[in-house]
Structure formats: C-alpha cells, structure tokens
Fold each of these.
Amino acid sequence: MMQKSSVIACLEKAWPVLVLVLPLLVAVVLADLYGSVLLKRTVTDALIKIVIVVGLYIFIGNTGIVSFGHIGFAGIAAYFATWMTCCAMMKPITMTGLPDFLRLETYSLWSTALVSVAAAGLAALLIGLVLMRLSGLAASISTLAALFIFHAVYANWDNVTMGRASIVGIPTYVTLWVGLGGAFLAIIAAYLYQISSYGLAARAARDDEVAAQAAGISLYWNRLIAFVISGMVVGLGGVLQVHFMGTISVNAFYLNLTFLTLAMLVVGGMRSLAGAVVGVVVLSTIADVFRRLEAGVDLGATRLSTPTGTQEMFLAALMLLILIFRKDGLMGRRELRLPRLRAGRARAAQ
Amino acid sequence: MLDISELTVRYGKLTALEKTDIRVDEGEAVFVVGPNGAGKSTLLKTVAGLLRPAGGRIAFEGQSIAGGAPERLCRRGLALVPEGRHIFRTLTVEENLLVGMMIRRDRAAVQDDLEQILGLFPILRERFRGVAGNLSGGEQQQLAIARALLQRPRLLMIDEPSLGLAPLVIDQVYASLKELNATGLTLLVVEQSTARVLDLATRVYVLRGGKVVLSDTAEALASGDAMEEAYFGYAGQADA
C-alpha cells in the first residue's frame, strides 16, 4: 500500500513534465516514420522554439518581468558554437580577430554545446548583475537595451562575426531526435527550477515585492538566478538553431525571433510551463498550415492559394483575440496535473 | 529589545517621521496609533529595512540595524506583516507558508512550528491546497500573520491588522495576537483605529504628523481620554 502511494506521489510530481514530453515524443515518432522532409524540418524547428520559449518562461513566468533581451543569449551561444565548430579552412581568413584557440582549432560538438551554453550563462550573469537591480517596466526596457547592444556589437565586429554577412559551413547535426532531446532538457530544467525554493521565491516576489522582502527574500539574487538559468536554456536553443540551419547571421537573433518567441509565450500562457509548450505548438502549427495555403493547394483542376501575408495577419489576429478574451493565455496559470488522482485524494480527504 | 531614537524618514522633500523615539521591551505588545499619514507604516517599513532612514538610530537587541537589508533583518529575528494583507495571491496557502519558512535553517523544528501555527489558525489547514487569492479578507490576514510567525521572529511587527476586516474577524485576529503575546512573543503593532488597542497593548504611542505626541502604558491610558485627545490633536505636545 505504502509502495503504491509513493509511486502515485512520484507520478503526481513528475506528471507536469510527463504530460508535456510524452505528446512531443509521439509527435516526433510519427513525423519520423511518416512525415515528409519538410514536415520533419518544421517539427524540428518547433522543438528548438520550445527550448527557447521554455527558457524565456523560466525568467518571465517566474519573475513576472518581461525580457526582450534573451534572444541575445541565444545569439551569444550560437556564435560561440559557430566559432568552435565551423569551417576550419575559412575561419583563419574571414575571422581574423578570433583568438588562436578558436581561429585555428575546431572542437567536438558536445564540448562546443557545453561551452556555448556556459558562455550564454556567463553573459546572463554579467548583464543580470546590473539589470536585476531594476523592477517592472524599467527591467524590461533595460533587457531590450541589452539586445540592442548585443546586435550593434555583433553586427559591426567584422573580423570576428563577419558583420551582417552570413557564416556558412556550420555542421548540421540537429535532427528531430536531437531537437526532442533539447526540448526534454529545457522542460526538465524549467520544472526543476519551478519546484525549487528559488523558483518559489521568484514567484513570491512576482506576486508581491513588499511581502517577499518582508519574508526575507532577496529580490535581486532570486531574479539573478532565474535570469542566468533561463539565459543558459535560451543559449541551448541558440546552439541547436545554428546546428540545425548550418548558417548564422546576426539578424537571425534579433527582433523577429524575440517577438515571435514572446508571442508564443503570451499565446500559451506566460505563467505556465505547459503554456510555453502549448504556445509554440499552436503557433507553429498555424504558421505551417498557412505557409502551405500560401504555397497553394490543388483542388482537382484548380489550385487555390491564400494571399502572401495571410499567415502573419492570422497570427496577429489570433494574438489580439487571446489578449482580449484570455489575457493569461491558452493555459492560463495552470499546469497539467493528474486529474483522477487529485479527485481520488479529495474524496479520501472528505 | 528594540530601541528607536531620533528616527527621521523622508520621502524626497516630505518628512514622514521626525526625530521619533520608540522603545519596545521583550515580551511587550506595543501599539503605535495615529491618523492617516501619521507615519505609522513608514515606521515599521523603516525598522524592517524596506525604507532607509534619513537620520536617527534603530537598535535591535543592542545592535544597530538602521538601513540593513530586509532579508538580513529577517534572519536576525524581525518579521513584518505589511499593511493591506500582502500575501502571494497566485500561490497556494501551503506555498505561502513555505515562503515564510525559507529563511529557517532548523528544518526539523519547522514541521512542528507549522503544526502549531495551523492549530492557531485552523482555517488555513482547511484551505491548505487552495489558492491564497481566493481566501476572504480575514483569512488572508491570518495567512500573512502565520507566514510571518513561521520565520520564528523574536519581534513581530504588524501593520494595521484590523484594516478592512469585519468586527467578528477582528476579534479573531486580536485573540490570536493575544495568544501569541502570552507565549512571550514581542509585538509591535500599528493601528489607525484605537478601538481595541487597550485590550492587548502593554504600551501605546500616539503618532501625529510624523511625531510622537503621547506615550504611556496601556494601564495608565485606560483610565482617561488622553489617547483620544492626542489622536485627534486636542492635547498639546507629548509628555512622554
């Protein structure tokens, strides 16, 4: 009996993660078995977006501070991965500003991923040490300023980043399964943080700064911890992105990706881990459907297609509707829990 | 235990407290009463480290604490229940109480304390897994006090415990405070209403316009109208 209840307790604890990763696993298996090349790429891209959006959720969802700057950490990690793995012949000529250990050497993909994520974490730490003293809108705007600084530096650092030009020849190893692994890691990291005392402290400070301080919570340190962890997870997303595309340019990690990933988080529900995942799935699905419709669908002798730009218009309209009618997003503030067991416990308690 | 001398606090050019002296001895229940804008909440926030004083001295158990970080002051044994039932509305009652225990190192004793506090506020046990934002005003006040108690403070500061509560609920809250004070917990309570103050207070300070205009023992104040006169400004300057 005791064994059974401890199994149920474990299951109940792990459920919010299982209920997110199992459908992703099924989707990846189906796409791998029956999907076209295009569908496989679409699903992989969505899995990478899950990593980034879950990373955003770790900070935004738990602290309540909207960050516009996190894509900069994805960019920092992605460029690190590029410098460590790409184009051994081209690097010494085109990226002359790199130190010798990067310019003349290439490294294994795993060690590159670890170092790149650590670099994103270090950047988040250094920036967070300054910015996390701020609260509310001031903190949000300052993260946007950090993104502008990242972009300006990387776009003009010609002998290191090749400026605004694209770097090609980056090894591509991110398949459906690697993307799924990344999404698993991100979701588990977010959940472990969420149930830790640091996550609880961050959410308490999000709800009421005065009460949190009165309860002995340091707003600064708890926000900094969330900022660094989320910077690392978003950095992992950047590494996966660059090894998926095989190419990188500074504009790939700027405003478009910032607002797309924020839109995914808002649509799903900013204050729920499940919301972060649901938001990516919903928006990626809609974007893919409209991409196909814009390309044209054959109906017998006629070929129907929607005008170019329908996708963006529909997504914008959907966001407006959600903001008006469900301002906490599709998932609200809820996580997916075990309904039957909870009901059973409630009955037992009665 | 708490010795405040010549404390001055300013919001920009506005002086909220001016050369205020207040003393709280161990085991006492000291009340600070005064009308709106008297500087009562400013006083507690400054002691708790949420505001920095412009001048004066705050000593807790003989050590200066003026301008210390709130989290450090919590660890030294000061707990504040801020005005307006500041609870964590989207967290459950259980999570609210967990936040209160965060600064504790003695994990073994925490569970015993939790049981004891849930005994003192049984409604919180009933609502343990519920979202705190759904609690009634009185229940939220009890939760805020329970959370502060879980910090195991030596001095509990409460800002307007009766604010916005029904008379019956105020009775419950005051009964709980009386019980806590009887266990030896030192209280520093701020109230706008003087109605129930003398039921619990051992000493009372009346604040007006950022200055102490009266201080005396509850026993002495019970026999006359001095407190009301000072509160409404009929009396002259403090004769403390």
Amino acid sequence: MNMSRGESQLASRLSVFVLVFLALYAVFAFVAWRTLEAVRVKGPYYNEIMLGNELIADVLPPPQYIIESYLIALQLMDEKSSAEASRLIETGNQLRVTYEARQEYWKRVLDDSPMKDLMTATAARAALEFYRIRDDIYVPAIRTDDRSAARAALDQMRQRYDAHRYAIDDVVKMAQARNADYEKRANELINEQIRTLVLLAFGVVLVVVVMAWFARRAAQSLSARVHLVSDVAGRVAQGDLTTVIPPSDANDEAGRLLGAIGGMTQSLRGLVTRVKQASVELMSTATEFAATSRQQEATVQGFGASTNEIAAAVKQIAATSQELMATMEGLNAVSGQTADLAEAGQSGLSNLDSTMDRLAQAANAMSARLAAIREEAAEITGVVTTISKVADQTNLLSINAAIEAEKAGEQGLGFLVLAREIRRLADQTAVATLDIEQMVKQMQTAVSAGVMEIDRFAEEVRSGVGTVDRVGGQFGQIISQVKTLSERFDSVNHGMRSQSQGARQIGEAMGQLLDGARQTSVSLREFNSATEGLREAVTVLKTEIAKFKLGNE
Amino acid sequence: MMLALTFRAGDTPLAIDTRFVVEVLPRLSLQRAALAPEAVVGLLPFRQTLTPVVDLCWLVAGRSARNRLGTRIIVTRVEIGRRFVGLLAEDVSELVDSRETIMGLTNPEHPWLGEHLADQTEMPMMVHPSELLPDALRQLFEASPA
C-alpha cells in the first residue's frame, strides 16, 4: 500500500488540529488583552466615567460644602419681603437636613484616615456650629427684624463658615492625592497581569508544539506496522495464503494484531482445504438433486393436467346441474302459478255458477209471467171473438132489416136509413175488433216468441250451469294434479340441489387438489432453481477456492 | 130505391138485387146432402122447407168458401119447384145502391153474370139468380118431391 500517503494523512490531520487550536488561542488572548486595555485606569471607559462625575460635581452645589447656606443667610439679611424671607429660611432648613444626612453617609463609608477626621470632625464641627448660630440667633433676629443682632450673628456665622471652608479645601486636596495613588496602583496591577498573560500564552504554544511532535512520531510508528498488516491482509484477500508473518517482538496493540493475522491465515488455509473437498461432494449431490426434482416436476405436471381435466368436467357437471335446477325452479314457479290461476278460475266459476243459478231463476220467473200474459191474451181473444160475433149478428140483422124495409116500400125508407147506420156501427165495431184481434195476435206471437226465447235461454243457462260445474270439477282435478306435480318438482329439486352441491364439493376438492399439485409443482420448480442455484454456487465456490494458493499443494 | 147486396165468390166481387133476397143467414151447420155434387154444401131447414145451399165459390173459383164470419148464406127467392135456393158466399156484409149500372162482358157460358154496379169501387157484377144454377143442379132440385 502507499505508505507516504498514510503518513501524510495522519500528520496533516494532526497539524491542522494544532494550527486550529493555536489560532483559536491567539484569538482568545487578543480578546483578553483588548478587554483589559479597555477597562484600565485612564483607559477610555475610565475616562468617560470620570468625565461624568466631574460634570456632576461642577454643576451641583456640594452638600458637604455649606457655601449655599451661607449665601442664603446673606440674601436673607437684605430681604425685605417677609414671604420671600420665610421661603429662604425654609430652604436653609432643608440644606441643613441634607448636610446632616450626607455627613452620616460619609461617616459610614469612609475608612479611618486623616481625611475622614478632617471631614467628619473639623469641617463638620464648624458647619454644625454655623447651623446652630443660624437657627438659634440669626433666624429669630431676622424674624423680629433686629438688624444689629442679626448682623452680629452673621459675623459669627462667617467665622464658622471660613473655618469650614479651610477644612473642606484640605479634604479635597487629600482626596485628590488618594485618587492619584489608587490610579497608579491599578495601572501597575493591569500591566503585571498582561505580562503574565503573554508568558502563559507562550507556555501553552510550547506545550502544544511538543505534543504535536510526539503524536507525529507515534503515528509514524503505528502506520508502518498497520501498513504491514494491511499488506498481509491484501494478499490473503487475493487468495495468497502462503504469506508467513515474521514474528514480532513488539508487545503493543499492533504487534498483537500481526500475531492474530498470522494465526488467522493458518486457520484459513486449513478451512479452505476442507471447503475444497466438501464442494466437490456438494457438487455431485446438487446434480443428483436436480435430476430427481426434474423427474418429480414432470410427474406433478402430468398429475396437474389430469386433475385439471377432472376439475373441468366436474365444473361442467355442476354448472349443468345448476342450470337444470334453475329450470326446475322456474318450472316449479310456473306450476305454482298455474295452480293459483286454476284456483282463481275455480273460485270465478263458483261465482259464475251462482250467477247462472240466479239467471235460471230469473228466466223461470219471466217465463211464468209470459205464460200469464198469454193466458190473459187468450181471454182477450175470447172477448174480442164475442164482440165480433155480436157485430156480425148486428150486421146480419141490419141487412135483413134493410131488405125487409125495402119490401115495405115508402114506409120502410126511414127504417132503411136506420138499418144502414146500425150496419155501419157494426162494421166499425168489426173493424175495431179486427184491429184488436190483430194486436192481440201480434202480442200473442211476441209472447210466444219471448217464451220460446226464454225457454231456450233457460235451457242454455241450465246447460251452462252444468258446463260450469264440469269445468269447475276439471279445474279441481288440475289443481290437485298441479299440486302433486309441485311436490314432485320439490323432490326433484331437492335431489338436483344435493347433486349440485355434491358436484360443487367435488369441484372444490379437485380445486384444492389442483392447488396442491400446482403448489407442489411450484415448490419443485423453486427447489429446482434452488438446486441450480446451489450448483452454480458450488461452481463459484470451486472457482473461488481454486484462487487460493495453498503452500503444501 | 134499389138496393144490392155485395159479396165475393173467390176473388170476384159480385152483387145481388135485394128483391131476390129473402133473408141473409149466418153460416149455420148444414145437413150434408147424400151423394150431392161438391158445389152443393147441404140442405138448410128454412120456413118448413129444406133449402139447398150452393157454394158460389165452388161454382166461380173452384174452391170451398172459407169459414169466416163474413161467409153467409143468402136465401134467394128463385122458386125452383116452390123452393128457395141458398147461396154460400164470402164477405156478405154490405148493401149498396144499385140504380146506376154499366154494361160489362156478356159471357154465354155464364149467363147469370150481368152488368156492373157503377158507383162502387170494385164495380161488382150483378148476379141473376134465376140463371145462376147449372142445369144438373136445377134438375136435382126440381126432381125432389116437395
């Protein structure tokens, strides 16, 4: 393998790591130095803060310096307005309260020093004296407008104020000296710290460089042995098992790795020898397997074909029997409908029967009525006959009377006329009776015809009733026969259904058998392909094993 | 005033002068004369004599007179051997005026048919009863003892 490349990889990674570390450290050191520089005394921030303090000190009247109280006292002296005077007095009181509060603060805050003594004892005493005179003498004098007393008090107050001012000036001088001292000390401290920081940085860089050198040496040693191991492993991978690892005296991890690789190579050599023998045996076994499975596959395929045929035949049987069953069911339904229709027809016929009976009764009644009419007509005929006989007699009498009257000559003339009138009346009567006779005859003819019709109708009705009865009986027979037919249909249907079910079951069984055969075939094919795969694998194995060089062959 | 009695023999409308008519009788049940010709219907007991009745329908139309109410016996005053002669005729029902007559045909074989009555719709022919009967019948009636 490429030795220099491995070395450069490891070394370059290491140096990159070191360089990155150094760069980060340099950045850290720079930032720390910049911070220290920024906050040091007389530095930019310090100067800004001090400038602010000075500004405040210049603007505000200092509470510890009683100049304002003194000035107010002077102003009060010349004040004429009593209201303004009261306001000035009140301001003076306020200033005293403020002074005393600040005095307490400074007593608490300051360390014991000559400056503190000067401020809280000397200056404070003069100030308190000043305030006492102002409150006890000066303000009452002003209130009573006693100018001479007030002026005297003001003199005393100025003496106290002067004493106070001298003391305060000393305090200011001492504070300035103290501040200068502190600034000097702070600068010295910061410079010392920066020096320490630089030294520390140099130390760290030195340690890192040394560590990098040691790491580089260890990596070089390790990579040399790793290259040896990888060379051996590469040769083993190429099938060269003849490599002998030189015994290593190093007892570190790399040495143990080399030993393990040597043991592994020897074991591999034994294993490959055994695998070579086994692969030859495996090859012959796989060939046998393939032959057997091919035979079995042929057998199963034949079995599958015959099973397919049987299944198809059984399916046809099942389909045919199902069709037959459907037909039978249809037939059954039709016969049921027929029975229903026949029953309906029978009931209709029974209705018809009763109707016919009523018709026959009506015909009989009508016939009886017509017979009565005929009798009455006969009676009318008798009466008419009598009337016509009377008319005839009258006619005859009138003729004879006329003949006799004529014989009588002139005396009979009136009688002749009478006879003629009588004859005319008789003739009219005869004509009328003739008409009546005709009418009665027509009536009788009509009645006779009606009677005949009714008789015939009644006869027809009677025969119709008979026919209806006969047809009803036939309907009954039809119904009973259709019913027995329906029962037979049911039994046939049942048989067909069980047959169809049996066929279906056979079909399902055949299907299962077929599936089994198909599965067997598929399994055999899979087995076949597996055997083929096995053979191919064994062949590959053999060629692969042939690549291994064994030293003892 | 002259009157004529109308009647029918078969389809032929006829009439007879009422001076020849003794009496008109209804068609009574007649004694059938034994061995008499078919034209002789029978003998009618009339005014203590047996009057022979001749069927005019038979003589004229060759058939018997129909049995109707109008079919009557006209007893005529013919006086053959002092007897009347009855004529059986149909539709004997009307007396008409016989003064207006019209000459018709003169049939030598039937001399009893005379002139037609003018003012009647059917214009019936007048019958001469004295010449009505054929000789055979006449002899038959004359020969019979009174």
